[in-house]
Amino acid sequence: MRSSPHAIDDEPVEFTTDEVMTVAAARELRNGATCFVGIGLPSTAANLARMLHAPRLVLIYESGTIGAKPRKLPLSIGDGELADTADVVVSVPEIFNYWLQGGRIDVGMLGAAQIDRFANLNSTVIGSYDAPRVRLPGAGGAPEIATSCGEIIIVIRQTNRTFVEEVDFVTSVGHGKGHGDRERFGMPGKGPTLVVTDLGLLRPDPETCELVLTHLHPGVSRDEAISATGWPLRFAPDVRQTSAPTREELVLLRELHGTRGVDG
Amino acid sequence: MAEILALDEAVSLLVHDGDCVALEGFTHLIPFAAGHEIIRQGRRDLTLVRLTPDLILDQLIGMGCARKLIFSWGGNPGVGSLHRFRDAVENAWPQPLEVEEHSHAGLANRYVAGASSLPFAVLRGYTGTDLARSSSQVAEIVCPFTGEKLSAVPALNPDVSIIHAQRADQEGNVQMWGITGVQKEAVLAATRSLVTVEEIVERLEPHPGAVVLPDWVVTAVSLVPGGSYPSYATDYSKRDNDFYQAWDAISRDRATFTAWMHDHVTERSERV
Question: What is the DSSP string of A110-148?
Fold first, then answer.
C-alpha cells in the first residue's frame, strides 16, 4: 500500500501499486476505440475504462469474443461471461487473421516478464532458451498484437528483474533496436506508445524510440525509478506527477474486483 | 457416417503410441475426459498439440504420455504456471519433452493450412522475434505480387484431433457453439477425429452461431456428459474456476500430483 497525500475528498485514500497501474492504463483508453485485451491487469483496466469515460470501448479477447461487456472480471480469456456478453464470437483463426491482421484494432495491451529500453518484450524464458532457468507461458497472441494493433500499451512492474539491459528472448517486438526497425520489419502498427509501471509512465523518444520516463506516480522518487531500471534511465525534461486514483476510480475498480468501498 | 463408440473403445481405436494428437478447445469445451482416457490407456511417445496446453496437457505431460509438445501459450489461465509442463522443460521430469512453440496466430494458421490441404500458411507476424530465429517451423517468405516480406508456417495435419462439443445426432453430425476456437480447423486438418459430446439427440435443432461438423468428417463420437470438466460447455456447465486455482497446489509437487492423478484419473473409469 502506498498512501497518497493527494487524494480528493478531504481525507487521503490508500491504494495499491496494482490499482495505480490499472487506473493509469484505463485513463489512456479512448471512448470508441477497439482494444485487444489480455487477461489480468489489462482486462481490468479496459473494463474500468468502459465504466468510467469510455462506455463505447470495444473489448476484443483472443478467444474470439468481440465487443465483450463482462459484468464481472473474467478469470480466463475464454470465460463464458465474455461469449455471453459479446456482439459476436468468431473462431481463433478469424480473430487473428481478419480482425487483428486485418488492421481493425486500435490498441493492444500487453504485459511481459522482461522489457528492454526499446520496449521489446519477453514472455518466453528466463535464461537460455535451450536450458531455461524459468520456463514462462510463452507467446500467446502477443507477437501479432505487437505487430498489427494501431498502438500498444504495455503494463509491467518496474524492477531490476523486469527492466533489463537485454531481454533473454524477444517474444514480441517493440521498437527493435531503435527508430526505423518497425518499418524495416514491415510492421503496420506504431508499436508501444506507452509503458505503465507501478512507478510511473514511460514513452518512446520520437527520435530514437528509447523509453523515456515522463511521469512519476504520487510518492515515487526519481531515484526509485533509476534503481529499478537495468539501463541508464532517461527522464523527460519536464517529468510530471500522475494524478492519484480518484475516489470514483477506486470505487469502480474495487467493485470490479468484487471488493466494495475505498476505506477497507 | 461417424461411429458412435464408448470413450474407451474410441480412444483405443483412434489413438496409438507415437501419434500426433491434437486436443483442442479454447478454454471452453476442452476434451478432459478423452485426455484422461489416453492417460488410463497408457499411451506413450505422443506429440501433443494444443494452442493452450491448459490443465489437460499438464496432466498428460506429468503422466509421461508425451514426447513432444506443440503449443502457443502454456500457462494456467488467470492463475500462473503449469507446473508439470515447467518441470518437464526445466528438469526433464518424468522424461525429456521436446518443445515446438508458436504464437496463437502461427499455430492457428498451421491448422488452417492443414485443413486447406496446402503445404503452408502465410501471416504477418514473427518478424524480428526470437520465436522465428529459434524455430525451423517459421520461415520468411516474399509475396510474389507485392514483394512484402511475410512469415510462413508449415501445415499441421495431426493423426487424430479430439474435441468436445455440446451435441451430436445419431448419425454423428456434431454441433457446438459459444467459443469454438480452432476446433473446426483441427478436425478438418486431421486424419482421424474423435468428438465427445454432452448429449446425443434425435435431431440437431439450429442454434445461433453454431459450428456444425457433418458426420462424414468425423470418425467417432462418444457420449460423455461433463466431458469437458473443469472446463465447461456453454448451456450445459460452468467453468470450475476454483479447480483451476486449486490445480496450482496439486500440481506443484510431483508426489501430490501423482497421488491426485491416481485417485481421480487412473483408478476411475469414465466409460458411459
Answer: E--SEE-TT--EE-SEEE-SSSEEEE----TTHHHHHHH
